[in-house]
Amino acid sequence: MIRDLLAAAALITALSLPAGAEQPAMLVQADSYVRDGSGGRTSLSLVLSRGVPFRIFTLDDPARLAIDFRGLNAEGQVFAELAGQTEAFSAVRYGAFRPGWSRMVADLTGPLRPGETSMNIDENTGRATLSMQLAPVSAEAFAAKAGAPDSALWPKPRQSAANTPMSDDRFVVMIDPGHGGIDPGAERDGFSEKQLMLELARELSAALRASGMAEPVLTRDADIFVSLQRRVALAHQVGADVMLSLHADALSEGGARGATVYTLSETASDKATALLATRHNRSDALAGADLTGADDTVTGVLLDLARRETDPRSDTLADALIQGMRRAGSPMNSRPLREAGFSVLKSADVPSVLIEVGFLSSQRDLDNLQRPEWRAQIVGGIVDGLLSWRIADEARRDLLRQ
Prior knowledge:
Layout (H helix, E strand, L loop, with lengths): L1 H14 L17 E4 L5 E7 L5 E6 L4 E7 L5 H5 L8 E10 L2 E8 L3 E10 L6 E9 L2 H7 L26 E6 L9 E2 L2 E2 H19 L3 E4 L9 H10 L4 E6 L11 E6 L6 H11 L1 H4 L7 H9 L4 H21 L4 E9 L11 E5 L6 H7 L2 H30 L1
Parallel strand pairs: 9-12, 9-13, 13-16, 14-15
Antiparallel strand pairs: 1-2, 2-8, 3-4, 4-6, 5-6, 7-8, 10-11, 14-16
């Protein structure tokens, strides 16, 4: 019932938009609030500069409240400040989620379900107030109702040219710029991992295309959120021959710096690598992705016998990339080859590696990432290593066939 009501509210709101309104709505900070009431209830009121279509739902494990907005452009810090107004929210995040849509995700301190919800629009000012009452429920009742609803406002991804398998005679490289949208990744001095990796991914794509020896495809070519499971699925949809996931994380301990290449393993090489993998694998939960059934999918993938062939190929790919970056003169980590259970590497039949091109916690690495000449250097090293691996890999596979 509540999902039907919320979907209806969103459709009504869509019809109430003023004709010709092209400017995105903004959150009116001063008039928005979240307050604790009696009986464990919580009231949420968000004032927008105008009405926009929206949808509300909850997600479990961990318990989260998610609100999707179409045509809202607001500052994430404004939403983050709401967490300090209530004991019901431990943290609140906001950011782009997919083209035209943004998402607010509130981490709940206990199971709360949205009850009475409305969006009222002031006829004089055009301001819209989204009001919601959250009431405590049992963990079982919360879990039973959790999950993203189906909605005509939120169509399922269509099969597009970018998702169509390339011709068999091409060497298809899936380039995966880490994070995106509501998930910024590491941040420092006004720079975010998601922005820096998208820029590097575009430059790597251009270099591979210019080589005439590879067909690059990006998991995202804009500041949007793509779930970890979706990134792996995209590699399969395009028939990728390899997958390169690009990151530039931050580690407060150990003074990590320099390029590092990671392959998949159930056991991490060291404590710092385990921490990185844990943070990467939490991206979907932080961004409000629905993880229902994800574990079963991953388990099935890991049991696939194809991994017996793919894992050694991923290992040789990692070695080739390290050698390529070294030949290009890129600063390398003191231990450039490591392994851990990164979810984005869990494809059974696509050799996959994760490249930390540097660490934002290192001032040197951050400075390098801002320099076009350094990015060209590391891109050249990656291309060199990748194409060298392709030649050697094809030779090895020909021998195995004999």
